[in-house]
């Protein structure tokens, strides 16, 4: 079974631009969560989608948004990029929300904002 | 405020010895705790978990201990192997199944 895939793996953008990141969950998994990882901060929860509906949202500004498609693939969008948005963005999937907390992560997208 | 804290950014252990990674939490409503391991350029992978109704869970070389009164959990790795060198994250699950993560501890196993 293929794992969670994220595209692109690396991205360099300029302040003020917008960016869209993509995540394909493990086949059969319907829950997709997004996290931002910065050095020393661990993983900060962005949002979770299940069956095309946002189920949970973390404490991030409205510039961060996401969506999920009927095939469970998910995208996240960051508008008006700031230098502080430079981070590793991780996507995780699970069969259902909760699932004992076990999530399967993709390799991440490394976003650099200059 | 950090609800899940890993106070040691890094830990160095001799190969073959025991590695003990610690995690503290503040929210007594957390009911499930997990440890993940992360290698560079990869996403975290699930390692072991424990429910709040237990105080110990063991899986091979990995054991997680939970002390609810102290709001503390620890991960023991015995014996430590070079492949265990990675960043270890502690996470706690709230009633909404949202995972709250610690900042991670980098474990270095010395040969």
Q: What does it look like?
A:
The complex is a heterodimer of chains A (114) and B (111). Chain A is built from no helices and eleven strands. Chain A has strands at 5-7, 10-13, 19-24, 31-38, 42-50, 53-57, 64-68, 74-78, 87-94, 104-105, 109-113. Chain B has no helices and eleven strands. Chain B is globular and about 40 Å long. The interface between A and B is medium-sized, with 25 and 24 residues.
At a glance:
The complex is a heterodimer of chains A (114) and B (111). Chain A has 114 residues and is mainly β. Helix content of chain A is 0%, strand content 53%.
What fraction strand of chain B? over 45%
Shape of chain B: globular
Q: Overall pLDDT of chain A, averaged?
A: 92
Structure summary, number of beta strands of chain B: 11
Structural class of chain B: mainly beta
Mean pLDDT of chain B: 94
> How is the quaternary structure best described?
heterodimer
SS summary, helix count of chain B: 0
| Gap between N and C termini of chain A | 37 Å
Low-pLDDT windows of residues of chain A: none
Sequence stretches where pLDDT stays below 50 over 5 or more residues of chain B: none
SSE topology string of chain B: EEEEEEEEEEE
Query: Main sheet of chain B, how many strands, which sense, barrel?
Result: 6 strands, mixed
Shape of chain A: globular
**Integer-rounded radius of gyration of chain A:** 13 Å
Measured as a percent range, the helix fraction of chain A is under 10%
